[in-house]
Amino acid sequence: MVSTLGGKKLELYEPCMKDTCNDILQAIESEVKSVDSHNMIWIRRSPSVGKSALVASILIQLQDQNKHAISFRFDRTQSTMTTTGAFWCVIACDLVYLYPFFHQYLVKHDKWRSSPGINHLFEDLILEPISILGDVPYEKLLVIVIDALDECGGLRHNLPIKNNYKSLLDTLKHWIQMDHLKRFKLVITSRLEDAITKMFPDSVSIHVNIPSGSEVKLEDSASDDICVFLKSQLDTMGMEPAWIARALDYLVSCATCIFIWATTAAKFLQINPQE
Q1: Total Cβ atoms within 10 A of residue 151
Q2: 145: confidence class by pLDDT, cuts 50, 70, 90
Q3: Cα separations (Å) of 55 from 2, 103, 245, 264?
Q4: How far apart are CA 184 and CA 180, in angstroms?
Q5: Is residue 250's pLDDT more than 80?
Q6: For 108-120, what is the HEC assignment?
Q7: How far apart are CA 239 and CA 274, in angstroms?
Q8: Which of 186, 151, 172 is nearest to 28 (CA)?
Q9: Taking the chain, what is the end-to-end CA distance rounded to the nearest angstrom?
Q10: Beta bridge partners of 189
Q11: CATH class of 4-210
Q12: Is the dihedral of CA 57, 68, 149, 40 positive or negative?
């Protein structure tokens, strides 16, 4: 299912191109299925390396496996809508849909209506109902996918927004610490941000790094993904195979696994491929 806010469907990204990101998707699938590993999977790296496309592919993967999944994407350009306060409310709405017991509980225990602050809202709206949810069959265990956590609350220039952001991270940390929540997986994407790194070190979460820049090696699978993407673009331009091979040798190394660079280069080449 896809979350909505105020009746407005959030913009969705296209999934990863076919035959790309296979290694990362397989690693994430393995971690989601594992009952013994940490319940947070943090996909982290620089902007424009395709994290949101990867999230779209993860959601498709979960859907194909008939897993219960809830998605939420923070966006600085919609910071008045995708706020810290909205997050747990949207998750609760989707939980009501997935687990009818939630609806019964929240109607009967409605102190969440006046919960002061994010921490209390999380406790009243999420933590308490889940604590008495009982045994959930493996195939119905929840996976929450949060895209662009670092964009939560916009640019966070003022103190209240910064405090709300800290409170949201606190609630996510509670999620991975509480025994009765450890069955439910969190998949998060973000840039490498100090606040998130300090809150979720290796000891409490699984880190999946997407290489970019100087970290990239030509033999990396991420480079292979860029190559597959660029080749598909060059093929549509009617370029001769010998030219495509030469172009790929140059462009793949220049892209350093940043998809926005490869996309921009492909659009520029479409103007006059031969030239």
Answers
A1: 21
A2: very high
A3: 12, 28, 31, 21
A4: 9
A5: yes
A6: HCCHHHHCCCHHH
A7: 7
A8: 186
A9: 46
A10: 43
A11: alpha beta
A12: negative
- Return mean pLDDT, the chain: 80
pLDDT of residue 85: 73
What is the Rg, in whole angstroms, of the alpha carbon atoms belonging to the chain? 21
**How many other C-beta atoms lie within 10 A of the C-beta of residue 178?**
14
What six digits make up the tokens of 207? 């880190």
State residue 46's pLDDT score. 66
**Dihedral, CA atoms, 234, 235, 240, 242, nearest 10 degrees?**
70
Higher pLDDT, 211 or 126: 126
**Residue 139, token pair as written in the block:** 């195939």
Tell me the pLDDT tens digit for each residue of 77-106: 766 566 777 888 888 888 888 888 888 888
Place of tokens 């919609």: 78
Length of the chain: 275
What are the start-end ranges of the H helices in the chain?
22-33, 51-64, 84-98, 100-108, 118-122, 128-131, 159-177, 194-199, 221-235, 241-255, 259-269
Question: What are the Cα distances from residue 180, in Å, to 48, 82, 103, 200?
Answer: 36, 27, 19, 19
DSSP secondary-structure letter at 82? S
The tokens for 248 are 């790929």
Could you tell me the residue ranges of all domains in the chain?
A: 4-210, 221-269
Q: Which amino acid is at 181?
A: L
